[in-house]
Specification:
This protein is 67% helix and 3% strand. By secondary structure, it is mostly helical. It has helices at residues 5-12, 16-24, 43-57, 62-71, 75-107, 136-141, 143-154, 158-180, 188-202, 209-221, 223-230, 236-252; strands at 3-4, 32-33, 39-41. The chain has 3 domains: 3-71, Multidrug-efflux Transporter Regulator, Chain: A, Domain 2 (Orthogonal Bundle), CATH 1.10.1660; 73-120, no CATH class; 131-252, Globin-like (Orthogonal Bundle), CATH 1.10.490. This is MerR family transcriptional regulator.
Length: 253
Amino acid sequence: MAWSIADVARMSRVTSRTLRHYDEIGLLAPAYIGSNGHRYYEQADLLRLQQILLMRELGVGLREIAQVLQRQVDQVAALREHQRRLLAERDRLDVLARTVARTIAELGEDEETPDMGKISRPENLFTGFDTARYESPARTQWSDQAQQSAQFAATLTEAEMERLQHEATAAMVRMAEFMQAATPVTDPAVQAEVDAHYQGISQMWTPDAAAFKALGQSYGDDAQWRAAYDQIAAGLAEYQRDAMAAYTDARLS
């Protein structure tokens, strides 16, 4: 049995334009093209599209998907691997749900008067957030270093990962306090925080002056990173960026 491109678009909620693009880049060709010029897909093609969409859900790029599909031999084994990764993502989302539930409980039910002073441990606000996904600019520009970071993260236990997340969020809170006190980014206390940030990154890879300054710039430029910082204090991303630039000029250049 074969399905037209319109049928596949309706079933998968992938636009016909996207399906044609997948064909153009060699990712998903139709089984055949009818005499009417329409593309038709068979069951094997639908299964391949499912794998493409699964990997897209997991944040894999089209080029990497093509490489995976090219190497793939055992389709069932591949699906099991996709399932494993999806279950891991489900577990991560469960952690995020518990984080939000804890925040709601600490803030109380009065939505009219939320008070950050009620948060007993602000470093817990971001437990479960995968901040690594916000580092796409750095990952693109420094792919080798990003791979080193991923390898380092893979060696950590869940408890160690949670501890590092708590420490990172606590550091962001301290930087927010400096910002709200109008402390200059060149102040020794602020620069000590940036140095701790640099040393933490250096456990995974050692950024040079250009890389560290560019990473700080991405905190201000990238919408997702900026939103992550702004959840602690508005303008924190720019303050962190400027503090990292000052550190780079003084210590790395």
